[in-house]
Input
Amino acid sequence: MTIRAPILIAGPTASGKSALALALAERLDGTIINADAMQVYRELRVLTARPGEAETERTPHRLYGHVPGAEAYSAARFATEAAAAIAEAQQAGRVPIVVGGTGLYFMALTEGLSPIPPIPDDIRAHWRGRAAEIGPAALHAELAERDPEMAARLRPSDPQRLVRALEVLDATGVSLAGWQAKPGEPVVCWEEGRAFVVSRERDDLNARCDARFDAMIAEGAIEEVRALLQLGLDPDLPVMRALGVKPLADALGGRMSVEAASEAAKTETRRYVKRQMTWLRRNMMSWQWLNAQQMETLQVTFDNYGKVSR
Output
């Protein structure tokens, strides 16, 4: 059978990676597979810049908007679903094009995940309840006392990862840092295809982020957040921590103006982009980095993109 090796495209928010993936998919008869942790959620199409009907009608898209916000999607689930989507595309003779801004998802594909055993429900429930009771800062202090190495890796404002570190420690007696040091099983070997990081100058990225958020407001982001809040979801769920949700929720609750909420969301997004770029430089320097001009010419490079026989 002829196998078409995957293309991987990572990059920060608003860098243009989705447009590049779409252009390549149309040229190469490709299937676009999402690797963005927020674009999986059903309720947030506008605020996560999820591809709309105009894009999905042009080429197949997978793993977009298929998860209800009441669920916490994970890198392990992504790896399983992405592997199935890649195989489906290859069996159909299409090029799998994996694109997104969640670096951990790409690491799950190319390096595999640590073999952490399942966490018992009672331990999971205990630490979720503890987080709700004492808050993330106190939770971080508790982790620092028991597992200083893991605490040093996590922000005190990240309750989901703090809970994960504590539940793994309780369930296994081993630090999450220790589990993460164990090798996983890769889903794809990226050397078989091509792996790219889309990058832009900081000022360009910031301007694109600001313009995109203004467009989101015009397209209905406020109404989308209103509908999300009406679901009454746990505020610690990942969907509730998507960029822009909290400031727009504050605007809807009368705690700030829409203009102030927009500025807060833009600031939040710029900080997130800075963290993304730091992570990408630390973990993906062996990938091929593309600037704006190189993105425009990349399709030509792939005119006769490899069909690899197996």
